[in-house]
Amino acid sequence: MTADEARVPAAGLAEFVARAFVAAGLPQPDAQAVAALMVEADLRGSDTHGVIRLPLYVRRLRAGGINAKPNVRLISDRASVALIGGDNGMGHLVMRRAAALAIEKAKATGVGWVGARMSNHAGPAALYVTMPLEHDMVGLYFAVGSNNHLPPWGGSESLLGTNPMAVAVPALEEPPIVLDMAPTVAAYGKVRLKAQRGEPMPVGWMIDREGKPLTDAKRADEGHLLPIGDYKGYGLSLIIALLAGALNRAAVGREVIDFVKETGKATNTGQAIMALSIEAFMSPAEFKHAVDGFIRDIRQSQRLPGVDRIWLPGEQSNAKRLDRRAHGIPMPKALRDALDAVARELKVAGLP
């Protein structure tokens, strides 16, 4: 925690976020549900995708870019697959329903795949991909990013986003394996965080339009994000766009709306989640015991010089969650000021 940070209890932060959403037009139950998911993102350490997004969500709600009272409904429904229409509602509400439906289908058939269209930004993928874990299931998640910052490999026009994917695998005694990643070297939210804090970006995050390194986060609009693994990251982003976007009749390529710059427009964000029942293959306890053993083999394996610990995907998020649940969520001054401004604008009680 830095010198300008204070800790805010998770419950108090969730109450504030819910008050703000009610004032912005969300019904109370929906406001509480979205607030809980946003705070959970911060508890997990996803600081770029949690309550930091509240000012933007409020702007979009007030500008009509998000439908405060949507009719989220099934467009198509089969034994193992379904498509949900989000009616331009808050993405958190759409994906919470999609995850619940995928789990329900997996209980019946062993696997459930649910796509969503006319959704919105829903926070970090880890929020939804971990929901199947409580039911002894593996979770997978894909989404089309809410703006385009990645050109095709060798191109200079951004036609792809930081399209996230996530996989969650349950363990028995160890924390679950949770891989939540973008196919770019850095998520764009991290670029915005650098700009907010006045910090330079590392070389390798972005290039300018001439292909030269770009490190000034405040000039991010002048450049492009770089993919992981060169052409492999570009290919991964493309496949995610097809599965989460095109397959759901959601926006891809030039159809994608920048949800930050065009706050009054619907984004038609596409997402997909899959739940896979372990019981369809073997005893869940036996599988999770095997996962524990593999985790310990990796953690205890020989390390390179200077390496103190080998981490597994999701371990650091789990550690942050335990710490922040006990001691509160770190709140930098810049973020607290932004949230206080939202409170004044909506005329609601501010942060605790």
Q: Mind explaining what this structure looks like?
A:
- With 352 residues, this protein is α+β, with helices and mostly antiparallel strands.
- Helices cover 37% and strands 19% of the residues.
- The chain contains 10 helices and 14 strands.
- The strands form 4 sheets. A 7-stranded mixed beta sheet has the order 2-3-4-13-5-8-9. It has a 3-stranded antiparallel beta sheet with strand order 11-10-12, with no helix packed on it.
- α1 (10-24) packs across α2 (28-43) and α1 (10-24) packs parallel to α3.
- It is globular, with a radius of gyration of 20 Å.
- The model has no long low-confidence stretch (mean pLDDT 95).
